[in-house]
Amino acid sequence: MKLLRLGDQGSAVAEVRAALTYLGFLPATPRQSGERGNVAPPGTRPGESMGTELPPPAATAPPIPAVPAIPAVPAADGAPGPAAASGGAAAGPPDRFDPDLDNALRAFQQSRGLSVDGILGPDTARALEEARHNLGDRLLYLSAAHPFVGDDVAALQERLFNMGFDIGRTDGIFGPRTESAVRDFQRNRGLDPDGRCGPRTLRELKRLRRTVTGGRPDVLRESVRLLARGTSLLGVVVALDPGHGGDDLGIVSGGLCERDIMADLAARLTTRLLDSGLESHLIHGPDESPNESERAARANELEADLLISLHADGSTSRHARGVSAYYYGNARGSSAVGERFAQLVQREIVSRTDMPDCRTHPKVWDLLRRTRMPTVRLDLGYLTNDQDARALGSTEFRAAVAEAVLAATQRLFLPPEMDAPTGQLHVPRLAGRA
Ligand SMILES: [Zn+2]
To answer: What is the Cα–Cα distance from 212 to 221, expressed in whole angstroms?
Structure first.
C-alpha cells in the first residue's frame, strides 16, 4: 500500500480523516487552530449501543509530543485560522493530510502502542480498521480462514473475562478459545451454545453487565451461575446454618440461648422459603455443631445457591448492640454476590426492625472461604444487650428477620428490572416492635 503522510492528498486521506473523526481523535466540527495535541476525547463513538470497556485511547495516553508545524499548504488555505473555526467549514479540504490530521493520527498511534510517526502504514491502517468495530456491529463467530479481529472482539473477550470465563488473553482475535468461552457463557445462560455472538447472546451479556460489576473474575463466576437461574425462584437452593447445636449453646445471657433462638429462626425461615417456592435445607441437625469447614463442605455437597449462617453476638460491654452481616473477602477482593446479598439482607433487616445497623464486613472465615456459593453470616444482635435481647427473645422479631432474609433472597435472584423498592417485598410491618 502507499504510505500516507503530512502533505499527501486524495480520497484515501479523506477516509483516514473520517475514521479518526469517528473514533474521536478529530473533532466532528472543526475548531480553532492552536489546539495541537489536544484531541477530542474518544469513547464517544456514534452507534455505540453497549458502551466500550476498552480504556479510552487518549484518556490514559501521556501528552502528545509537540510536532513541528510544517504547513503542507499555504497558510491561507491549509493552516486553519480563526475564520475557518467560525466559518463551520473543515479546517482544510478533507482529502488533504494537514497538521491536524497528522496530530490526530499520532495520537491514535500512541493510544494503540504503535510507533508514533504520523505515517499511515500497514500497521496503523490495520489498527484503524480494527478500531472501527463496536461490539454489536457484526455477528462474531469462529472463522478459521479469516478470523474476526477488532475492538468488538476485544470488548467481548473482556466482558467474558470479567465474568470469569476462560478466554486466554484479550487479544481482539476471535479464536477457538474465545469461541469456547462464548459457548460456556451461552450454556450458563440457557442459550443455544452455538459459539456465535449474535443479538441474543449480546442481550444476555448486556443484561448481566448491569448486575455483575466489580470484584475478581473468579468470584464473579458465581454471579453467572446464580443468574443462570433466570427469573424464577423455583429450584433455588438455600442452605441454612443455625450457628450452634448440641452441647454448643453459643452465647447464653439473661436466660436466652443463641442455639435455641437460631434453631427457631432457621425453622421459621425454612417455612417462609419453602412457601415462596425456594428449596431450603438445614446443613446440620439440632444435636450437632460441626466445625466451619464441615459446614462449608455440606453446603457444597448440597450444591446450594446460597448459604446463610445464623448467629447472635455477645460482648463484655452491655452497650454493644446491632446487627451485622459478613461475606467472604479481604483487601484483594471479595465475593461480589456475597457482598451484594449481605448488603441486601442487612438493609432489609434494618428497615424492618429497630436493630442498629452495624454494617456489612468482608471476612476470610472458613465458612465464608470454603463454600463455593455466596455465603453470608448474620449476627442478629447482642444477647448481652438488654434491648437486643428483648428483640431476639420475641417471636415478632424473628418473624421479621425471616421475612427480611426472604425479601433479600428474592432481590438477589430476581433480575434488577423486577426489583421492588426496599420495604415493598414484605409482609405487614412489625406492629409492636421490640
Ligand atoms: Zn454464634
So the answer is: 10
Please count the other Cβ atoms lying within 10 Å of the Cβ belonging to residue 416: 9
How many angstroms is it from 430 CA to the middle of ligand 1?
25
CA 391 to chain centre: 37
Q: Which three cell numbers stand for residue 176?
A: 477457538
Residue 434 lies in a domain: no
Pick from 337, 379, 338, 241: which is nearest to 297 by CA?
241
Domain ranges, residue 374: 237-418
Amino acid letter, 200:
R
Task: Answer for the pair 105, 127: CB distance below 8 angstroms, yes or no.
Answer: no
- What residue type is assigned to position 329 of the chain? G
- Distance from residue 380's CA to the centre of ligand 1 (Å): 10
Instruction: Please indicate, yes or no, whether residues 338 and 353 belong to a single structural domain of this protein.
Output: yes
| CATH code, 137 | 1.10.101.10
Residues with CB under 5 A from ligand 1 (ion): 243, 250, 311
- Give per-residue pLDDT as tens, 174-199: 999 899 999 988 988 888 999 999 99
Shared-domain flag, residues 144 and 92: no
Cα 332 to ligand 1 centroid, rounded to whole Å: 27
Residue 290 alpha carbon to ligand 1 centre in Å? 12
Say which range, 62-66, 123-127, 168-172, 248-252, has the weakest mean pLDDT.
62-66
Asked if 12 and 127 sit in the same domain, the reply is yes
- Whether residues 118 and 144 share a domain: the answer is no
Cα 377 to ligand 1 centroid, rounded to whole Å: 10
What is the spatial distance between Cα 37 and Cα 214, in angstroms, rounded to a whole number?
34
Q: In terms of domains, do 265 and 186 share one?
A: no
Cβ–Cβ < 8 Å for 415, 346: no
- Tell me how long the chain is: 434
User: For the segment 330-348, what is each residue's pLDDT rounded down to a tens digit?
Assistant: 665 667 788 889 999 999 9
Q: Is 54 among the domain residues? A: yes
Total number of domains constituting the chain: 3
Q: Are residues 67 and 201 in the same domain?
A: no
User: What is the sign of the dihedral through the CA atoms of 341, 347, 351 and 357?
Assistant: positive
How would you label 208-237 residue by residue, b for 16+ Cβ within 10 Å and e otherwise?
A: beebbeebebebbbbbbbbbebeeebeebb
pTM of the model as a whole: 0.50
Which of 70-74, 75-79, 231-235, 385-389 has the largest mean confidence?
A: 385-389
Ligand 1 centre distance from Cα of residue 166 (Å): 39
Ligand 1 center from residue 425 Cα (angstroms): 28
| Residue finishing a domain among 66, 98, 132 | 132
Evaluate whether residue 230 is within a structural domain.
Answer: no
